[in-house]
Description:
Elements: H1 7-15, H2 22-53, H3 70-95, H4 125-133, H5 137-156, H6 169-189, H7 197-226
Helix pairs in contact: 4-5, 4-6, 4-7, 6-7
Amino acid sequence: SAIPYIGQFTVEWIWGGFSINNDTLNRFYSIHFILPFMIILLVFIHLMILHITGSSNPLHSKINAYKINFHPYFSIKDLITIILMFLLFMIINLQFPYLLGDPDNFKMANSMITPIHIKPEWYFLFAYSILRTIPNKLGGVIMLFFSIFILYLIPMNNSNNLKNNKFYFLNKILYWWFINIFIMLTWLGGQMIEYPYTNMSMIYTFTYFLYLSISFYINNIWDLLLK
């Protein structure tokens, strides 16, 4: 609703009415059911393209003998990762089903009362933390979407001589710095809107967006040093 001109119309179109109703719930339930199948389809398309064109070539080698086959090296590695993630998923679902839940979810829904400490699911807490740091409503929404969109820009930002982070020592340190920032923003998004969490969110939001530009310039400087 913060988007000028089309915001209110878009909200009512998504809701299917002037307020949240059964049509809204049915739409979101349908999206949650369809999305996993779409993701699986995209994974298979990705594997097909990877099999046809090949993956990245960090050393820019033109000789096939120096390249690594997708199978069995990468396929077995990915299979082990899938098994471990599925095992973790089953442990959480069967042994600790309420580990990532919120106590407010067990309260009776009341459309007339807004919960005191409303927050999204844990995997969106980092973006929610960034949203809360911007006083302006429209600015907060823009920064929220950009905080997710910036994750797609990171691979596209790689215009360096060597197409792999393992050859850039400083960028490897920056990468783990970025992971720590992401974890801290996720934790801060679940805290109350009060001091010192609000101040910490502002600092980590600034460093979150600073990572992309810093990594780009450091890689360019590293390339110049190698020359």
